[in-house]
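note to self — DONT lose this again. spent like an hour looking for the file last time. sequence + predicted structure for the chain T wanted, 326 res
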Amino acid sequence: MKKLKLVLLSLVVLVALTSCGKKGTDIVIYSCAEDYRNEFYLAELQKQFPDYNFTLDYQGSGPAAAKLKAEGLQTQGDILLSWDYTYLEMLTDFLADMSYFDDSIFLDDMKVPSKKFVGEYRNSGAIVFNTELLAEKNLPEPSAYADLIKSEYKGLLSMPNPKSSGTGYMFLKNLVNAWGETEAFAYFDKFAENVVQFTSSGSGPLNALVQKEAAIALGMTGQAVTMINEGAPLKIVFFEEGAPCSLYGHAMTKKAEGRDDYDKLKEVFDYLVKVVTPACDAKFFPEQVFVDKVFSLPNYPENIPYGDMSNNTTEEKTRLLEKWKY
């Protein structure tokens, strides 16, 4: 986690330094994306708009939402990059009207009735193992959620905290839907006994796997595939309850909507959604969101068995998170 924070801090500093002394349009991006996707987005935007000054501020989903809510219409942010749909729905009062944007490019479940944000990617979750670490500890690979609460896995599990991470929340919501609320929360009471860390970001558990700080993680399928393709000894599995799933999107703030140069921001935003986002999805998260674009990636699971994510409303999320105590 310390390494990740340093990488992200360096990224922000680098972007800020490259903007020093430049004249042109200043655009502040509030991002919830992982460091490698932030780097990709920024590089592509800077390439297309070399005279614009981009500054990226990264935070996990929960802290980012709290920050924007606190700042309100006085926010410094112009573009929101890769935010969970449920958080965006909570913040529609602070978002620009996206009615101008033609959302026919998206699959139906990615379309947004409020017209306050647009789609980016579909994020499924998986149970991911560090196979080398399990072998070193002479432990079997678990095949069900019930296995994860066995004593032999104590101190070897990692999961994103649902209060700060959309990825963490989707695991909680999936099991609430699969088992019922009482049983799901009782399970997480036992699960917590084996957890080495509930991380603040969705990427934290898989980073812990690579660093051998954990052997089993609840994390993002796409991030796990990226690490596998980079040589990490990880294995992706889906349990009987299916893969939890979240939708993520982009938006502009009402503050941006009030800028004199809003047309310039719209040009940047449209390029971000129509050109850079498909390229990013193809590179990191190929689960389909666009009507006419189907991507594949080495080692990416096919025919992912998505779990039940019904009733995934902002009201339900608020209610369930009030009960989460870890």
